[in-house]
Amino acid sequence: MNKKTILLVDDDRDLVESNRQLLESEGYMVYTAFDGKSGIEKAKEVKPDLMLLDVMMAHSTEGFDISREIPKIPELKRTPVVMLTGIRQKMHLPFGFQPDGTWLPVKAVLEKPVLPEKLMEVIRQYAG
Amino acid sequence: MPRKDEGVRRRMVKNRKVPKAVILRLTKYFTWSQEQLEDGEEWISSQDLAEQLSINGATIRRDLTHLDVQGVTNKGYNTKALRDVLDAFLGADRNWKVVVVGAGNLGRALTLHGDLARQGFRICAILDTDGRKIGAMIGHLAVRHLDELPDIVAKENVFVGVIAVPSEAAQSVADMMVVSGIRGIFNLSLKHLIVPEWVQISDGRLVAGMLELAYAVKEHLPEG
Question: Are B31 and B112 part of one and the same domain?
Fold first, then answer.
């Protein structure tokens, strides 16, 4: 049986590495990218079963742009995206935010730091 | 609060959906009734409004039904009462704190524009990402970095933001405003902005307005 593939897009290389180890130990094939632009290129190349996407990368809200870009790319339009972000803590935001049809077309928003079991629960839910 | 003997009765109906075109005309009635009040005019008729604003009288009367305003026979509407009703309906009777993002020429001009403050829109911060602009004074405000937006919004209880940045940066600024808790965005860029349903957008439409004007002028120019 083919392994499910996950693309991690985050500029925090340490976090990417620890999430890679976690996901590989759970039997997933993991690809990585460290900014939004290369994340999209990698996604086109590997067509992942799920994309785990950070927000604050090249600029403070790059992840929002990428999440809106993905559904416009024909080969990626069905790729589920889960947002994993520390923006609330870093920018002292008064409240969290949720997936939104057009503004934030992702399956779920997880706030860093996220417990491994919570992360896996969401990944299994949307990547299978 | 207007009294019945002033010829105006008002009943604010929350959540009543008023078409955008009507809102646009109501803002015109508001500014005109304000001018009339300043000129000492006690009464305004719908005919006066129609002639001065080049809007059909029946349209005006229909628009004012959204406010549940009633005039007095042979006199029209009491100017102050009408202004007050429109003021409350449009939310101009509140003091709104506003943040402006973009300290270029447009943002500067807006920040220094006295009429906004007179209408209750007090600009409490102007922000940018350009290091050369940070700290520069515009009126009595020092330009602050965009990263400070969430703190300013929370501390100053700001609900309204103005985007005065180039199109390519506008969506990113809108996203920052959304996550900071801004509920209404006046968009002076040319970019069509995507925001959640609970954030309201008003487009300045500078270029669209000029294009409409160009088309209208072109249509009325003599041929040849």
Answer: no
Structural domain count of chain B: 2
Q: What is the CATH number of the domain that holds A106?
A: 3.40.50.2300
Contact assignment for A60 to B195 by CB distance below 8 Å: no
Mutate to test the interface with A, among B179, B185, B193 (most CBs of A within 10 A): B179
> CA torsion sign, B183 to B186 to B189 to B191?
positive
Place of tokens 């009408």: B82
User: Tell me: the pLDDT tens digits for B61-99?
Assistant: 888 888 877 788 888 889 999 998 998 888 877 789 999
Residues B70 and B102 in one domain: no
Same domain, B114 and B83: no
Q: What is the mean pLDDT of each run of 10 residues along chain B (224 residues)?
A: 39 61 89 90 88 89 84 87 89 88 95 86 96 96 96 94 96 95 94 93 86 88 76
Domain that holds residue A21: 5-127
- For chain A, the farthest-separated pair of C-alpha atoms sits apart, in whole angstroms, at 45
Task: Report the chain B residue with the minimal C-alpha distance to residue A61.
Answer: B172
| Structural domain boundaries, residue B155 | 96-208
Q: Do residues B8 and B77 touch, judged by C-beta distance below 8 A?
A: yes
pLDDT digits (tens, 9 = 90+) for B27-50: 889 989 988 999 999 998 888 888
Q: How far apart are CA B163 and CA B99, in angstroms?
A: 9
Q: CB-CB: which of A65, A92, A104 is closest to B151?
A: A92
Taking the model in full, what pTM does it have? 0.79
Query: What is the widest separation between alpha-carbon atoms in chain B?
Result: 61
Angle between helices B20-38 and B79-90 (to 10 degrees): 140
Asked whether the beta carbons of residue A61 and residue B154 sit closer than 8 angstroms, the reply is no
